[in-house]
Structure to design on (451 residues):
């Protein structure tokens, strides 16, 4: 008997799991559903536009879309066009893979001032996400601060520092490219509340900052002197993590010997500082107050030393939350789908960042998908009387035909696989020479290609 599966969200986690289930579950029919007319989630919306090799993973995902038992259903928002309950009523198995792209709020007074942005908003803007069509961040000052010591903070610092020539083959939003080009920025502060050893960025991304044509990475302490970077990491890290952290220290040691020289942009790593206040004038940020910190018995404590930096634009890169779908169990404090090892409720599962929070690199989602495929298949194979594995079995459902009827009755313009390929070709076709593609920046532009 055919088994119907809906995967909501078409980022890496959704595609990896769709790949496994569409192969392993004989006679399955799988629909990959997305709010946008385009698939691939964070690969299009959040991976830095100059990380073209990373984006090439979509070729692998395209092969999943070619399978006879897989459909792409774009331009459908669950919770708006189709309710969560309707989705559950149509498919035997529903998998939530909606990722996490809402910004975690900076817990500071003034966080909603003009010139203060979350990294999710900022990153989706330079990646031409349709939700950011009207967004135009203030990049009109000399001083930009980025809070957070993760890879997203480094991505943003790098994109803000690159010249148009260095971005020539990227798929950056042209409006963003223009604004960045016109920005008079001279100083970008990358602020960590802990030290170089505790930073969560990785060596590849850190090293990229040494290859910029008009910017130089510097490591300063608050009093303007070079910060002493430890030679050796401490204890308590496992093999892979200790290698990453040790390599980070080595790179930062090199950066601490750099001089500003005549570089147009200085990238200052400022460790051991916790933001304490966003200062404003006429509703716009003009400086950032910070408290110096230190670790005491492994706990972060603030010292009495303070520092105030002139800041015209502040970007907080401190992590993300998932967006709840109305009716779906959701853990508000954690900002993830409420789940136990990926099981949400009968017949419903979750995978990726909406399950475990915004952690890990793209291949981490493959490991997660392998785990979830095992769980889902084990639940399907379990006898109805066997309660030991908290199985999520339900009565057979009508399958994709039922969702097609609902969508058609509601006159929802579904974007299928072939439609997506037309949009894809149109984006590639309209790109200036040398660029991989020029994305459409609104849903209307994408649909116009089809009509
Ligand atoms: P992240 O790696 O978790 O880093 C978040 C940073 O924000 C940490 O330095 C954290 O400090 C800091 N932070 C959190 N709350 C704060 C607060 N209230 N005040 C000050 N600082 C605060 O997150 P991310 O950079 O958003 O990246 C998300 C995931 O995507 C990561 O797994 C990352 O590796 C991945 N990613 C990978 C790539 C790539 O492979 N090229 C690119 C982008 C993102 P503490 O450590 O002290 O909490």
């Amino acid at each position: 008997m055919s088994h119907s599966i809906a995967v909501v969200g078409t980022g890496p986690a959704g595609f990896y799991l769709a790949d496994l289930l569409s192969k392993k579950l004989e006679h399955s029919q799988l629909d990959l559903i997305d709010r946008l007319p385009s698939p691939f989630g964070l690969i299009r919306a959040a991976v830095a536009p100059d990380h073209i090799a990373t984006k090439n993973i979509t070729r692998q995902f395209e092969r999943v879309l070619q399978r006879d038992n897989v459909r792409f259903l774009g331009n459908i928002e669950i919770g708006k066009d189709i309710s969560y309950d309707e989705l559950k009523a149509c498919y035997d198995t529903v998998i939530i893979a909606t990722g996490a792209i809402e910004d975690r709020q900076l817990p500071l007074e003034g966080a909603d001032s003009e010139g203060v942005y979350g990294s999710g908003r900022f990153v989706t803007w330079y990646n031409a996400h349709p939700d950011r069509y009207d967004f135009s961040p203030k990049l009109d000052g000399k001083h930009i601060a980025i809070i957070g010591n993760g890879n997203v903070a480094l991505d943003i610092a790098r994109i803000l520092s690159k010249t148009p020539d260095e971005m020539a083959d990227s798929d950056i939003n042209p409006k963003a490219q223009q604004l960045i080009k016109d920005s008079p920025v001279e100083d970008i502060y990358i602020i960590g509340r802990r030290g170089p050893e505790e930073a969560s960025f990785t060596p590849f991304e850190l090293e990229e900052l040494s290859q910029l044509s008009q910017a130089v990475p510097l490591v300063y302490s608050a009093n303007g002197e070079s910060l002493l970077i430890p030679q050796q990491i401490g204890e308590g890290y496992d093999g892979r993590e200790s290698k990453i952290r040790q390599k980070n220290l080595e790179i930062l040691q090199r950066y601490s010997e750099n001089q500003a020289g005549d570089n147009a942009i200085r990238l200052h790593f400022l460790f051991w500082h916790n933001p304490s206040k966003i200062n404003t004038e006429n509703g716009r940020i003009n400086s950032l107050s910070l408290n110096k910190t230190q670790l005491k018995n492994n706990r972060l404590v603030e010292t009495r030393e303070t520092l105030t930096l002139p800041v015209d634009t502040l970007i907080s890169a401190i992590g993300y939350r998932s967006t709840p779908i109305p009716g779906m169990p959701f853990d508000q404090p954690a900002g993830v789908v409420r789940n136990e090892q990926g099981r949400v409720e009968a017949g419903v599962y979750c995978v990726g960042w909406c399950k475990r929070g915004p952690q890990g690199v793209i291949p981490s989602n493959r490991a997660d998908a392998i785990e979830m495929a095992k769980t889902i298949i084990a639940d399907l194979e379990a006898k109805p009387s066997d309660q030991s594995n908290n199985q999520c079995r339900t009565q057979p459902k009508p399958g994709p035909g039922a969702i097609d009827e609902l969508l058609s009755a509601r006159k929802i313009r579904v974007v299928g696989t072939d439609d997506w390929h037309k949009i894809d070709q149109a984006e590639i076709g309209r790109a200036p020479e040398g660029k991989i593609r020029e994305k459409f920046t609104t849903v209307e532009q994408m649909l116009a290609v089809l009509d």
Q: What stands out?
A: Residues 107, 147-153, 155, 192-194, 198, 200, 205, 317-319, 358-361 surround NAP (CB under 6 Å). Residues 362-381 form the longest helix (20 residues).
